[in-house]
Amino acid sequence: MKKVLIPMIALLVGLVTLAGYFLPTQLGPTLTIIIGAGILLMSAAGLIGIGYLLHMHIMKLVHKERGGFFSLIVLLFFLVALIAGLVLPPGSAFYRDLILGVQIPIEAALLGVLAVVLLVASLKLIRTRGWTPLSIGFLSSALLSFVFDLGLLHAEPGTLSAELLDFLRGLPWLGARGIILGMALGGLIVGLRVLFMIDRPYGEE
Amino acid sequence: MNWSLIGWIFIGVSAILLALFTFLFRSGKGYPIRKTEAVEAYKGSQVASIEEGRARQVLLGESFWTYVYPGLGLQALTIVPKLLDLETAVDGGMSLSGGDGSLAVFARQIVDGRYQDGFSTKLSPIGVRTTLPGVTPLSLTAGLLSELSLRPYGSLALLGHYGPAALLLAETVIDKGGRVLGTAGTLAAQAALFPSIQNLLIGEMTYMLPGLFKKSTGHQAAWLTEDILRVLLILGLIVGAILKMIGVL
Predict the structure, then answer these.
(1) Closest C-alpha to B197, from B185, B209, B207, B215
(2) pTM of the full predicted structure?
(3) Torsions phi, psi for B25 (to 5 deg)
(4) Residues of A in contact with B101 (CB under 8 A)
(5) What is the chain B residue with the closest CA to A47?
(6) B180 three-state secondary structure
(7) Which CATH number is associated with domain B34-213?
(8) Scanning A52, A138, B146, B244, which has the fewest C-beta atoms within 10 Å of its C-beta?
(9) DSSP structure class, residue B98
(10) What is the pLDDT of residues B179-223, one digit of tens each?
(11) Would you list the domain boundaries of chain B?
(12) What pLDDT digit, counting tens, does each position of A101-125 carry?
């Protein structure tokens, strides 16, 4: 029963949602209910997710695993944030400053580390991937983009060199569009695969 | 005719092609199977990790749904059943992590559904772990980074939607001798991972992943449909560019 029922519900919801785009007047109210239910489900899952997070850190403390001290800090500050969030009003400037005052410096520090790691990774590109057309293309594109973005190269508007410069500056966007088009195509096929029950992550295969 | 209608025609053609090929391939005549080096290397690293007693981590992404890349969360979840086999559960070294409650919950559901028949938790009390190391992109990175630093990880699979911060995770695993499979992610993540990771799938290749792990007639039909759509899209772009050049569009 479960093998049939769950895929059927998924198929029905998917088809109704899709049909809702074609028939917005007729299926509008149904679509609102489906989307509302989806948002509710996602929110409930979000809460359960936070439960997972707490469970993981509590278990680390209980089993005295390595890094337990950090788990203690996480739990402590989670409680502080939770209590402050419940006690203070939703638009409290103090609460916002309290959270952002911690979050922004930590995230900035992590991004700083990321920048260094990215630089090191770029330097060892050839060692990792070797001299392949793809790695040479990647490296030369990155270098040329840097040069063009510096803004040192200028050309008289309306001339051939200005056209050429604009074309070269736009090349990274062309590449990005190509990849995004490919991903959109892939995304479409994933949706259809789930709708046709070729992929059934929600049940048994 | 407007662009929206063209989009719907495209979706309709895709659906018809997929249904047609799925039906045709049921007779056993399929589309040639592709072997992707990245996936084969990842499968090898799974076996090696189990033999060496090292843990394996699968990151399902930062969020289940995003406006720019709406299919990535779902894509990550469709791969999960292909990664779960008996050895994986018995060994107890695999963790599935997500930065979104819904990803973690759905992953747990898939794991429970997968092992509900013919598998006793007495055999392995751990099974496959699902965790949520952080609820924002950078807290996810920080949480997972500490987890990856504490234990030796043999492999890391980066699935779903994530940003360039995933590079920190990848470098941590690589430094400890582990192997990384990078798929999907944002454009910035793909660019950031390219210099570091050998096994990286970009663009539409990412969406072929479930069939690369375990083939089925449905996946073969999806591959052929995707290939035909790619050709149609390329032709459409060329024709569109020509029409624009001559001033029709």
Answers:
(1) B185
(2) 0.87
(3) -75, -5
(4) 42, 45-50, 52
(5) B101
(6) strand
(7) 3.40.50
(8) B244
(9) -
(10) 999 997 888 899 899 988 989 998 888 888 888 888 788 888 888
(11) 34-213, 216-249
(12) 988 998 899 889 999 998 888 888 8
